[in-house]
Structure to design on (278 residues):
C-alpha cells in the first residue's frame, strides 16, 4: 500500500473520561463496519490504536477527528483538536498527554469509507474488581446498531493472576452471545515483544503464542481458536500476536514497533472486511 500514489483518508473521533458512564451518549453516523477494541484497563488498547493509526498515516491514509461522535464534550473536543500533535508525532509521551478513553477512527481509501476503529474505557468492558458488571447503555447501543463489527479481543500472556485471567476468559466467551451473523473476531495477544523467546527474525511464532493462550485462556481458545471448522465458520475468527512498541520509563518516550506488527493486524482486519476469515 505504501507504494501506491492514490490519496487515502481516515477520520478519528475521540472522547475523554466520564464520571457517570451510564449517562454516556455516542453517535455513530457512518454505517461502515466497526472494529471494536475490547479489553480490560491497561492492556494496551490505546497504544495499539495509535500504532495502527500511525501506520495508516504512513501508508497514505489521513487521520482527523470526527466531532459528531461525542459532540458537546469540551475535553473531547480538545483532544480532537490536538490529536495529531499529541498522539501521532514520533515522540508520543503517554504519561504526559491527556488520557483518551474513547476513540472512533473512520478509515477511508480513496475517499471511500472502509471501516471504523472504536476504543472505549477498559473498565467498561471488564473491571477486575467487578467482573460481573453489566455493560453500559451506550455500549449496547453500539452492539445492537446493526452495523457489522470485528471484535478485537485483547489478551496478555501472564496477565495479572490466574483468577483474573479466568474471569476475563469467561467474560469474553459470554460476550459471544452478542455476536451477529455479520460479525467476526480477532484474538490479539498484545505486548508480544515481552516474550522474546517466541520472536524469531523479529516476527512472532504465532503457533507458540496460541499454545500459551490455550493454557491461560482455555475458553477463549476453545471457542474462537480451536482448529475446527465449526469454530472458524461460526465466529469467523483469527489470531494475531502484536506489539505496539517500547516505552522508556526514564525518558517517557514511546518508540514504534517494526511495521510488521501493524501491517499484519491491518491485513487481517481488511481480510475480514472483504468477507474472508480462514
Amino acid at each position: 500500500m505504501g507504494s501506491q500514489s492514490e490519496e487515502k483518508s481516515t477520520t478519528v473521533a475521540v472522547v475523554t473520561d466520564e464520571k457517570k458512564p451510564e449517562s454516556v451518549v455516542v453517535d455513530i453516523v457512518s454505517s461502515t463496519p466497526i472494529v471494536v477494541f475490547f479489553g480490560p484497563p491497561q492492556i494496551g488498547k490505546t497504544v495499539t490504536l495509535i500504532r495502527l493509526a500511525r501506520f495508516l498515516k504512513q501508508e497514505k491514509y489521513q487521520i482527523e477527528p470526527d466531532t459528531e461522535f461525542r459532540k458537546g464534550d469540551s475535553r473531547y473536543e480538545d483532544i480532537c483538536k490536538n490529536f495529531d500533535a499529541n498522539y501521532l508525532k514520533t515522540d508520543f509521551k503517554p504519561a504526559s498527554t491527556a488520557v483518551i478513553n474513547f476513540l472512533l477512527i473512520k478509515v477511508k481509501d480513496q475517499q471511500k469509507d472502509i471501516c471504523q476503529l472504536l476504543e472505549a474505557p477498559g473498565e467498561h468492558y471488564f473491571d477486575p474488581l467487578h467482573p460481573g458488571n453489566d455493560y453500559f447503555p451506550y455500549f449496547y447501543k453500539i452492539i445492537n446498531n446493526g452495523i457489522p463489527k470485528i471484535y478485537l479481543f485483547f489478551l496478555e500472556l501472564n496477565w495479572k493472576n490466574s483468577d483474573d485471567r479466568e474471569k476475563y476468559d469467561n467474560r469474553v466467551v459470554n460476550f459471544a452471545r452478542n455476536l451477529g451473523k455479520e460479525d467476526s473476531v480477532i484474538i490479539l495477544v498484545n505486548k508480544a515483544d515481552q516474550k522474546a523467546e517466541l520472536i524469531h527474525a523479529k516476527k512472532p511464532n504465532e503457533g507458540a503464542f496460541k499454545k500459551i493462550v490455550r493454557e491461560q485462556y482455555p475458553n477463549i481458545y476453545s471457542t474462537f481458536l480451536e482448529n475446527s471448522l465449526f469454530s472458524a465458520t461460526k465466529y469467523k475468527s483469527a489470531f494475531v500476536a502484536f506489539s505496539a512498541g517500547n516505552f522508556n520509563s526514564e525518558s517517557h518516550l514511546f518508540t514504534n514497533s517494526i511495521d510488521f506488527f501493524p501491517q499484519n493486524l491491518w491485513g487481517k482486519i481488511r481480510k475480514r472486511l472483504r468477507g474472508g476469515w480462514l
